[in-house]
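Narrative of activities, Objective 1.

The group set out to show that a structural description can be obtained from nothing but a protein's sequence at a throughput compatible with the screening campaign. Below is one input-output pair from the validation batch, recorded exactly as produced.
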Amino acid sequence: MAALVPIRHLEKLDGDHPIVVVSRGIPYCVTRSRDGTICAFIAVCTHKNRAIVPLRIKRGAIPCPHHGATFDPTTGEVADDRGKSIPTGMPRVAIEAMPDGGLALVTKKSHKKTLPKKERKRVRRELQQDR
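Output recorded for this entry:
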């Protein structure tokens, strides 16, 4: 079953500053492409199913903080695997318009399968420290 999770702070979204939305311990990455298209992905490196937290854009790509592979912020595809065998890019997430004019991520219970429970707990802990 899908749940709509509002994307807050869209005014801060630009090509160099992604927004991180966390739901059920899953970090979602929201970016804006040069043409203004808003994109969303599960912020996970599929090399070892680790969350890409902290999330940032460096030299036009999203680096994995665990081993340095990079991902394209507008497609989620692997830009440079740095010699690792990364099976896929970051999984894409649908975005829906809300009645109030805002946008929301369409999150699914199955997204929990992208990260082990231990990693979801780490995300919650790490992002709580950033507040």
